Amino acid sequence: MSEEESHWIRNTVIAVVVLAIMGWLASYIPGVWSWVKATATLFLSWFVFSKVPVPVWLLALLLIAALLVLARFAGSLFNRRSSNGPNWLEYKNDLFHGVRWRWTFGASGMILNLSCFCPRDDTALAYAERFDGRTSFKCGKCGATFGPIRGDREHVIAMIERQIDRKLRNDEWKRKNPTVAP
User: Fold this and answer.
1) Is 50 found in the same domain as 112?
2) 22 exposed, middle or buried (CB, 10 Å; 0-12, 13-18, 19+)?
3) Segments forming the whole domain that contains residue 147
4) Residue 8 · residue 78 · CB < 8 Å
5) What is the pLDDT of residue 159?
6) How many domains does the chain divide into?
7) 148 CB burial (10 A radius; 0-12, 13-18, 19+)
8) Averaged pLDDT, 152-167
9) How does residue 103 score in pLDDT terms, banded at 50, 70 and 90?
10) In whole angstroms, how far apart are CA 85 and each of 2, 81, 175?
11) What are the two backbone dihedrals, phi and then psi, of residue 96, each rounded to the nearest 5 degrees?
């Protein structure tokens, strides 16, 4: 059970206990229950017997419909907040072509700050564009070289962005995958 759900249950139990104690204390005050009964009867009789241009049964149906819509809306708010599923905005790194890639998402969901890191020691990689139109990545700490990958640096970055987009569209990023860091 999530922490939010346990708080909701705890708060409901506290509210019920407080109302029960208030009702028990009110029973020691003379005339409280007769006043509650008279007030409820007065309200109910006013609601049922008041003269309005619309039939009262129609108002009652509209009131019930409004309460159902309000309850459904409130339920959807609680369900959305207590969702335990992963959020796509949490998908911020993955392994492509043997290289760890990290990024952030902009407000519109666009991939920003796409950078590559050594999977061995987590050092930012330097890139080198080769004469044959390929790009290699090299770790300055351990000396490991990754690639070559077809295309210049911009082409490789665009290709990685397309891979990220594909995983997001196909929900592949949700699967338990050793390439996604916790």
Assistant:
1) no
2) exposed
3) 88-174
4) yes
5) 94
6) 2
7) middle
8) 92
9) very high
10) 12, 11, 12
11) -130, 135
